[in-house]
Amino acid sequence: MRSGRNGHRASRVSRVHTSAAQRRVYRRADLERVLNPSSIAIVGASSRPGSFGERLLGNLGAYSGRVHLVNAKYDRLGERPCFPSLSALPEIPDCVAVAVPREAAEAVVLEAAEVGAGGVILYASGYAETRRADRVAEQERLAAIAGARGLRIIGPNCLGIANYRSGARITFADYPAPRPMRSPAVGIASQSGALSQSLAQAIECGASVSHVFSAGNQVDVDVADLVAYLAEDPNCHAIACAFEGLAHPERLMEAAEIAWRANKPLLVNKIATGQMGVEAAVSHTGSLAGSNAAYRAAFERTGMVLVEDFEALMEAASFFSKAPPPKAKGVAVLATSGGAAIMAADRAEAHGIPLPQPSETARRVLEEHIPDFGSARNPCDVTAQVVNNPKSLWACGEALLADESYGALVMPQPVAFDFHIPRIAALSELSQRHGKITCNVLISGWLQGPGSLEAQIDPNVALFRTMERCFSTLEAWHRRGEKRSRGERAPVRVSDTSATARAATLLDGARHSPLTEREAKAVLAAYGIPVVSEVLVNTAAEARDAAAKVGFPVALKVESPDLPHKTEAGVIRLNLRSAEDVQTAFEAVIANARRAPNNPRINGVLVQPMIPSGLEIMVGARVDPLFGPLIVVGFGGTLVELLKDTSVELAPVTHSEALAMLRRLKGAALLDGFRGAEPVDVEQLAQIICRLSELAADQTQRISELDVNPLICAGRRIIAVDALISFASSD
User: Fold this and answer.
1) Has residue 507 been placed in a domain?
2) Cα angle vertex 58, ends 56, 61, to 5°?
3) Which of 128, 223, 270, 730 lies 20 to 30 angstroms, CA to CA, from 346?
4) Which pLDDT score is estimated for 382?
5) Which H/E stretch holds residue 11?
6) Residues 596, 656: one domain?
7) How far is the C-alpha of 470 from the C-alpha of 440, rounded, in Å?
8) Residue 221 and residue 195 in contact, taking contact as beta carbons nearer than 8 Å
9) What SS3 class is residue 381?
10) Which of 5, 49, 52 is nearest to 25 (CA)?
């Protein structure tokens, strides 16, 4: 096992739950023999048309290495010798392509391990994806061989791989034929074989692809390993990853860290995000889809770029392979159509992309070349007159790309005609000169028309086929650029160093789960989180006396470990302003508690001062079975489940991450004051979120769920008035 990674990002990833036997990701050196082999053995070689062995050999026509055929039925296949076994080969093969039925595959894998092969690619299906116990056991035996012998296994139930640098299409499927590879290129890592083919077919439209990998059932090598390999391969400049789910997703985060350190953009599309998709994933690859919110948090934490739509993945990856870091957040739109310019403005606004007006210098150039019925603003409409004066587009593009307000230029292409081709070349030259990217948005119904290939193959121009995809990608580009420019500072712990031990003592001393509100708030207080004070009473007279000492108005709450949701149980009374109100309320809440099902235990009644109204925020935490502790922030009170306006991160979070969580909420404007309300001190609120996230991370082995609802926020006064903590299962 390799030594640990340096830096705070690695230490934070390590907090994710992982079994003792779980390994780190394979690196490029671990997989080089199987993914970039000098020699390949095809076991199950055949001349029968359509057989896996015949198709494998045909797909290796452009391969520059050595190919050996293995099949005991033949002495020769055509002009090639055929050997009876792997041990009979004249050399130890780097990669063994196993083109035999499942029933014979395990023996081949064992022999490959015995002769010292670098790895095998196993195409056969019918293993764990069937969910049959005997087939699951077969797959587990393959995993045991990989672990014990150091043999890397890709598959089973996969299509194989294509390495376009070496011409090694080690697949029976129809991956695009090798052709001269251009730089920059995209590497593809997919769990699904068919989806890897789908992405790879972008080659047919001019996209440059360095590798196509499919992982299948991931008995040994999985998507995370393939991503890590691509992150370290100099022929790959951006990574497009499509997957359903991973049993150990923390290793994808580890691979993402490797890509981040290499400054290689990693774009991911995760399917199986809905309930039906999750169920399908189990039957398709035997994988665990996991929590969509947790995956999103993991993507955000490690700098992965989430692409929501599979159909947009290759366009976005191609853009990131070409685009330099953004020099400015502003984007200029240069259009020959007023309608297309308006479309661009709409999408820019939807994605928060600023379209600042040009500088005085640029504006003078625009006015000189654009007729008065056009627009010398941003978006810039040079009108169809550009056909009569082609140099005007060059001049306007030069002025906009030279303007320091803009980091990218968007050129909508409403129609596909030959006269667009020289425009792309001209803007490419300008983009290269100014170190900025041009986006050519082909919105014609003729998606492969003139200009599409030229834009796709140009290293300075990114091709998009919808305005939405273009501006969505620009938004992600800016967000990634900002994350990189902030650097990787070490997280600063907010809570006192003794908080962990003090809270652990309180939790270990509790005798029931969930904790009562009073016990839960004591744990919060150990982490420096402000909580409302209270007095526990057992009679109405004690309640009246406590209320007089606390000061009216007060709140009454029944304390019971069996009534975690007090509002629904009717055991809360608020805003009590007199001793008589307290007397009546005490009797009512006790009566309701005694009527509750299952004879709940009643410890007494809490008397608390009423906290003045303010914005209610919910902060919760739970332990995800795949990712460990997650922190959740949303608007609180009784509307939290109805509104479902929440933000999720892996715990613990930094102060800047806590601020970002708040700003991602749809109702974030409420934090700044609404209709005369006092603005919330978001810096202080972010610090409290950090403290709660540290609690969740520190006490992961003890608690399964934490809910602080609400935190009442008014200016600098932020206080927790209710809390719930549930213990982790002892299983």
Assistant:
1) no
2) 115
3) 270
4) 85
5) helix 8-13
6) no
7) 9
8) no
9) strand
10) 5
The list of the chain residues with pLDDT below 70 reads 1-21, 274-290, 386-388, 488-491, 637-643, 730-731
State the Rg of the chain over Cα.
31
**Strand pairing category for 80-83 and 266-270:** unpaired
Q: Which of 43, 109, 51, 110 is nearest to 82 (CA)?
A: 43
C-beta of residue 396 within 8 angstroms of C-beta of residue 383: no
In a domain, 518, yes or no: no
Burial degree of 2 (CB within 10 A; 0-12, 13-18, 19+): exposed
Same domain, 577 and 639: no
| Cα-based angle 165, 169, 172 (whole degrees, multiple of 5) | 170
Tell me the three-class secondary structure of 46-97, residue by residue: CCCCCCHHHHHHHHCCCCCCEEEEECCCCCEECCEEEECCHHHCCCCCCEEE
What's 718's domain CATH number?
Answer: 3.30.470.20
The answer on 571 and 628 residing in a single domain is no
Same-domain status, 709 and 692: yes
For residue 326, give the amino acid letter: P
Containing 161, the helix (H) or strand (E) segment is strand 160-163
Predicted local distance difference test score (pLDDT) of residue 640: 62
CB 344 within 8 A of CB 412: yes
Residue finishing a domain among 288, 319, 350? 319
Using an 8 Å Cβ cutoff, are 295 and 253 in contact?
A: no
User: Are residues 602 and 623 part of one domain?
Assistant: no
Q: What is the pLDDT of residue 2?
A: 30
Q: Are residues 442 and 465 in the same domain?
A: yes
Residues 6+ apart with CB under 8 A from 276: none
Contacts of 627 (CB under 8 A, 6+ apart): 16, 17, 249, 250, 290, 291, 294, 295, 297, 298, 650
Written as one letter, the residue type at 444 is S
The reply to whether 328 and 288 lie within a common domain is: no
C-alpha of 17 from chain center: 18
Q: Which of 421, 452, 486 is the last residue of a domain?
A: 486
Amino acid of residue 693 = S
**C-beta separation of 380 from 341 below 8 A:** yes
Is 271 part of any domain? yes
Nearest to 572 by CA among 708, 718, 722: 722
Find the helix or strand (DSSP H, E) in which 112 lies. helix 102-115
Quote the pLDDT of residue 568: 86
CATH code, domain with 579: 3.30.1490.20
Q: Residue 224: what pLDDT?
A: 97
Specify whether the CB–CB gap between 669 and 703 falls below 8 A: no
Number of domains in the chain: 4
Tell whether 16 and 122 lie within a shared domain.
yes
Contact criterion met (CB below 8 Å) for 395 and 365: yes
Residue 552, domain extent:
533-610
Q: What is the CATH number of the domain that holds 421?
A: 3.40.50.261
CA 592 from centre of chain: 46
Tokens of 705: 């769920």
Tokens, residue 262: 């290499």
CB of 713 within 8 A of CB of 680? Answer: yes
* CB contact at 8 A, 155 and 196: no
